[in-house]
């Protein structure tokens, strides 16, 4: 069992740092090079990784990992779209579904508002974990260093202690909000969708132009998006 866990840890690190060599992997994982090398051979034999640029000293993931991720993503979409549609009907606003990827969340589904004033984000766009509602909803359930955070607007939280306090508040109330922290013209509330192990697999949000989310609506929308995320957490778990 331990060998399987080690191989999965190595696979995660290869995915995050590719192309990467055995020495760097061993340092990051705190494992002997020989242990990492055995896991790399196993993953290569199983088709999960391949030499980067033909160099057997550096590795990257194969399309097999992407295929598995795509099937998972499609299952998530199938479950999420009816819940997203209900949110859109309740609020009349745009609803987003995003998944964590490295230091960002990625938009994989969007149901748009019918209102003429709208902000359209393209599918596939990446938003920073610390400066977006979807990102903070996810980040509240992750153990990540909170230093050297870039500012995107004047309201971006870049102080680590301040962000830790914000994430504690997110966990307490069930949803994160964005007060123009990534783009000053966007407001949003979001809640994390959790897997069986309690880790965030996605986040769902209500997004509006900043002018359409006063504080009273922010709290009401936060309650709605929290309930939606809990519904999806239950259905996926």
TrEMBL record:
PROSITE patterns: HTH_ICLR, ICLR_ED. Residues 1-76 form the HTH iclR-type domain. Keywords: DNA-binding, Transcription, Transcription regulation. Residues 64-237 form the IclR-ED domain. The keyword Oxidoreductase does not apply. GO terms for molecular function: DNA binding; DNA-binding transcription factor activity. InterPro entries: GAF-like_dom_sf, HTH_MetabolicPath_Reg, Tscrpt_reg_IclR_C, Tscrpt_reg_IclR_N, WH-like_DNA-bd_sf, WH_DNA-bd_sf. GO terms for biological process: negative regulation of DNA-templated transcription. Pfam families: HTH_IclR (PF09339), IclR_C (PF01614). SUPFAM superfamilies: GAF domain-like, Winged helix' DNA-binding domain. This is IclR family transcriptional regulator, acetate operon repressor. It comes from Nonomuraea maritima.
């Amino acid at each position: 069992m331990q060998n399987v866990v080690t191989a999965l840890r190595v696979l995660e690190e290869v995915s995050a740092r590719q192309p990467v060599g055995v020495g760097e992997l061993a340092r990051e994982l705190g494992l002997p090079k020989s242990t990492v090398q055995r896991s790399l051979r196993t993953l290569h034999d199983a088709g999960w990784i391949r030499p980067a640029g033909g160099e057997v000293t550096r590795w990257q993931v194969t399309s097999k990992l992407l295929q598995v991720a795509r099937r998972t993503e499609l299952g998530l979409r199938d479950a999420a779209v009816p819940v997203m549609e209900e949110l859109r009907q309740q609020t009349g606003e745009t609803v987003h579904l995003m998944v964590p990827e490295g230091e960002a969340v990625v938009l994989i589904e969007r149901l748009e508002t019918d209102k003429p004033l709208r902000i359209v984000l393209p599918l596939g766009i990446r938003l920073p974990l610390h400066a977006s509602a979807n990102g903070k909803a996810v980040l509240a359930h992750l153990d990540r260093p909170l230093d050297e955070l870039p500012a995107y607007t004047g309201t971006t939280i870049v102080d680590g202690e301040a962000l830790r306090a914000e994430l504690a508040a997110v966990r307490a109330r069930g949803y994160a909000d964005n007060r123009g922290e990534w783009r000053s013209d966007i407001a949003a509330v979001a809640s994390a969708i959790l897997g069986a192990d309690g880790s965030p697999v996605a986040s769902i949000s209500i997004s509006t132009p900043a002018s359409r989310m006063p504080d009273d609506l922010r709290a009401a929308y936060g309650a709605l998006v929290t309930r939606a995320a809990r519904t999806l957490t239950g259905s996926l778990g």
